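Hi team,

As requested, here is the filled-out complex form for the nicotinamide-adenine-dinucleotide run. I kept the field names the same as last time so the parser does not choke. Let me know if anything looks off before we queue the next batch.

— J.
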Amino acid sequence: MKIAMLGSGFIARFYADSLIGQRRIDTLHAVYSRNVEKAKQFASDYKLPLYSDNMDEVVNHPEIDLVVISLPNDLHLAAVEACAKAGKHVLCTKPLGRTAAEAKQMLDMVEQTGVMGGYLEDLCYTPKFSKSLASVKGGSLGRILWAKSREAHPGPHSNWFWNKEQSGGGAIVDLGCHCIEITRNYIGKDIRPVSVMCWAATQVHPIDAEDNAIGMIKYANGAMAQFEVSWCFRGGMDLRDEVMGTEGTIWINNFLRTGFDMFTTGQGDGYVAEKAESKTGWLFPVGDEVNELGYNHMFTDMFEAIEQQRSPFETFYDGYIVNAIIDAAYASAKSGQWEDVQIEDWRGATGDDNAERFRSFDEEYYLIKEEILPHGDRKLILKNKNTGEVIVKDL
Ligand SMILES: NC(=O)c1ccc[n+]([C@@H]2O[C@H](COP(=O)([O-])OP(=O)(O)OC[C@H]3O[C@@H](n4cnc5c(N)ncnc54)[C@H](O)[C@@H]3O)[C@@H](O)[C@H]2O)c1
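And here is what came back:
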């Protein structure tokens, strides 16, 4: 397949680094940028035969099979519309829309046209995430009770992010979209997100949107997700996830303190990592960012999905659900109440998860816990299923 890139900024270059950094049968072929000089520069840097400052020309070019949208949030809808009209498969960066209503329009457009709509949520493709999710799906953590994801950095790199109209909000829509989809995967995409409680504030920057927020998302099976986002965090990019289940726990540090620490007095001029704030002292470089951040695995899944005529792991429908949760988070931040997640088209499981919640010890008792004491004694704490009495049984 021949790929066209819409946009030539920050994420377009990350995506291009991934697309040309691997020996792929699918090749980056064209770029659109509203500034023709930037399009020309991008095409020259990545050795692309076509560039233009006319989006329709690039999308409709007969050699182009697939379009990657790397434009500001307010331009995703028009770009998806152009791709759907042209009958081209489309991969859109996060967040899919500024609102669920926008995301739903994009979902409908690709589904009605029959092109593939891939949601470029790279953090759901990182090697650490994929292995963790496989462990969760394999049952290593038992029933998932709680999943938390945190993304925090000192704030984005372009003016449009700071304009609420163009971006759709602040740190919640920009960073929360990652955290929401990460935790939703751990809890299970089939489980309906029910309601959201969110605190959001503008603590540091002179903007209309929030630069800090914490949210909780209740799922239909009783599991809880939590997101923490900030545009005020100092010290780089903090990407951490935690999952807690009845049988285990996962902690992931994705970016800072990944096991690669470096000290420099400040000699030289090396690039450290995205959003790194310093080039001196103790630094936390990231070995291969496009790989560690999941871009390689993400594009491979997208291309294979098209070839195999299956859905990719992250679809426009997932992007829509994420936007619906974000809408509820903004409503809750405003009302101070739990707010329902409004989903027009729920495609997952319905009703509560009826799994047995308590672990039986035998016919008569539930097992609350087993404890090994410092001097080596073992005891069981049991609860009588009929009387409710809690007893200790020494082993
Ligand atoms: N990890 C990720 O998945 C990730 C990371 C960063 C950004 N993003 C997303 O990528 C998208 C672009 O963000 P970015 O960081 O590359 O921003 P950016 O500002 O670096 O680049 C945006 C590009 O869009 C172009 N552009 C801006 N306004 C335009 C307009 N009115 N008409 C046409 N072109 C216009 C700019 O010239 C530039 O080429 C956003 O949706 C953002 O949320 C995703």
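Two things worth flagging: The pocket of nicotinamide-adenine-dinucleotide is lined by residues 7-12, 33-35, 70-73, 75, 93-94, 120, 122, 158, 160 (CB under 6 Å). The radius of gyration is 23 Å.

Thanks,
J.
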